[in-house]
Amino acid sequence: MRYGERFDPFNTWHPTLPGRSTHPHGKVDAILDAEWRINHPKGANAMELKSLLVSSDEKTVRTLRRVLSDLEIGLEHCATSDHAVHRITRQRFEAIIIDCSDPDDSGKILRASKAAPVNKRAVSIVLVESAVGLKGGFEMGAHFVLHKPLAVERARASFRAVRALMKSERRLQIRVPVQLPVLCIGSGRYQAKTIDLCEGGMAIQFTGRVAKENLLRFSFDLPGLNQKLEIWGELAWEGGGDRAGVRFKDVTDAQHTILRNWLYNQLPHPEEPDPPLACRLTDLSLGGCYLTTSSPFPKSTRVILSVRTANLEVHARGVVRLAHPEFGMGVEFLLTTPEQQDEFRSMIDTLRSGGESPELHVEPEGLEPVPPEPTASPSHLDDSLVDLFRQQSNVPVEVFLEQMQQQRHAQESH
Predict the structure, then answer these.
(1) What strands, in cross-sheet order, belong to the sheet with 123-128?
(2) Where in the chain is the domain with CATH 2.40.10.220?
């Protein structure tokens, strides 16, 4: 499966404009430097994770203040939707929490969040009464939906997954200002230098002839490393005549690890990711697996699944295809390279060996802007478990578990 477009780091200026575009600002480096200073006044991770709670229920506000304080997440509170929309359009938050007393107001706040460039990638959480239900909350477009009234321990378990996803989304958006020579290879060859670099892409300035091609291979060295990176990317915007934004495409696991570690080491105050979530495997196929956990990640979250035994540690990437709050999630494996496919086979062999009980952990990589289309990879063809994830993502958890059990028994009989 194609891994998908990981992240457009420059869509602050073009939240809805697809493909290549003309950047509206000529002095790109000045803008990037200014945004860096605003968002990272003492280094990228001196900033506290920030959330906005929209609620007029004093009990809910007290509960969440306690829970989020324990998890070291800052909380700002708005009592009305109008006040919340005003704040969302002017201030960055890693999470927007909405107490859904009025579905219309809640939907308006979520739409405002997704439309605001500064918060379009904020993690959204909706708190619902039984009359609205989980399905109603997800239909509004929320990433997480929690039932009211909130119990402290239950809310704390759910917000552990929220915090991990908040951190991963923030890491994806951290840009490191750096100037590196870049060779851009397409039908022609072009010389450039970087303006800044992040996990999802970079801003570059051509030093000679400007590329008119959209898809290019970019070759550059990272200071302190002896390995040259060659990454495919597409020009997402252009501005000032000789400047452009690059969105990386189809990055391998090895390239992703090298880039992430190098960026992490450039930050004055590096932020450690949250520990991965421990899970229990209930169902496994060539295309995916179902994991039970009290803190599942939302649908369309990219994840890394780690399998550890006494003699082996294997990692596989995937995307969450369905999520059952406080219970579990269905993950489809993403296999785009021979390296990933080999690791996947090792993981399958380990899980099916039955010789020793493996440890399973999951950590988030970020949210997919648009869920990838079904793959034509051999490991995913006619995969009944993945099909069940896709077809039954909106049914109640009890109904889904019964269907998954029936499918499992039918396959065992066969």
Answers:
(1) 73-78, 49-54, 95-99, 123-128, 144-147
(2) 28-40+176-266
Walk along the chain (414 residues) and give the pLDDT tens digit of each residue.
Answer: 323 333 333 333 332 223 333 333 333 333 333 443 334 444 434 458 999 999 999 999 999 999 999 999 999 999 999 999 999 998 999 999 999 888 888 989 999 998 998 898 899 999 998 777 888 888 888 999 998 888 899 899 999 999 999 998 888 777 889 999 999 999 999 999 999 998 889 999 999 899 888 899 999 999 988 878 999 999 988 877 899 999 898 888 788 888 888 888 887 776 777 889 999 988 888 888 999 998 999 999 999 888 887 777 777 889 999 999 889 999 998 876 677 677 777 777 766 666 666 788 999 988 876 444 444 444 445 789 999 998 888 888 999 999 999 988 887 776
CATH number of 277-396+404-409: 2.40.10
Q: How far apart are CA 103 and CA 5, in angstroms?
A: 32
For residue 408, CA distances in Å to 312, 388, 398, 401, 412 come to 27, 11, 15, 10, 6
Q: In whole angstroms, what is the distance from residue 192 CA to residue 170 CA?
A: 27
Q: Which amino acid is at 374?
A: P
Q: Structure pTM?
A: 0.73
CATH node for 49-173 = 3.40.50.2300
CATH 3.40.50.2300 segments of the chain: 49-173
> Around Cβ 46, how many Cβ atoms within 10 Å?
12
> Can you tell me the distance from the alpha carbon of 101 to that of 140, in angstroms, rounded to the nearest whole number?
13
Indicate the SS3 state at residue 247: strand
Q: Which homologous superfamily does the CATH classification assign to the domain defined by 28-40+176-266?
A: predicted glycosyltransferase like domains (2.40.10.220)
Question: Residue 379 carries which DSSP code?
Answer: G
**Residue 296, helix vs strand vs coil:** coil
How far apart (Å, rounded) are the C-alpha atoms in residues 179 and 26?
18
- Of 252, 244, 98, 73, which Cα lies nearest the Cα of 170? 73
| N- to C-terminal Cα separation, the chain | 28
